[in-house]
UniProtKB/TrEMBL annotation:
Gene3D superfamilies named in the record: YefM-like domain
Domain of life according to the entry: Bacteria
Family: Belongs to the phD/YefM antitoxin family.
Role this protein plays: Antitoxin component of a type II toxin-antitoxin (TA) system.
Database matches in SUPFAM superfamilies: YefM-like
Protein name listed in UniProt: Antitoxin
InterPro entries: Antitoxin_Phd/YefM, phD-YefM_TA_antitoxins, YefM-like_sf
Length: 79
């Protein structure tokens, strides 16, 4: 775990963050006492990958024989 003074952190914060690897911790000190901890986080992707075709194959185990038959409530509209 690396340490820097608060003055160094203020002067070079963008560069310090760019050099850190995800999960790395940096302790910021003031008067040789730790005052803060900086941790680089893992970048997140904005969109999850779309699953490929056939992912749900075999998951439907039963389908009623009249699955696609008109509903009783809709018969008057079908005439």
């Amino acid at each position: 775990m690396a340490t820097v003074t608060i003055e160094e952190a203020q002067a070079n914060l963008p560069e310090i963050i760019r050099r850190m690897i995800p999960g790395e911790e940096l302790v910021i000190t003031e008067n040789q006492q730790p005052v803060a901890k900086l941790v680089r986080v893992q970048p997140t992707t904005s969109k999850s990958p779309r699953p490929g075709p056939g992912v749900c194959k075999g998951m439907i185990t039963y389908m009623a024989p009249d699955f696609d038959a008109p509903l009783e409530d809709m018969k008057e509209y079908m005439e």
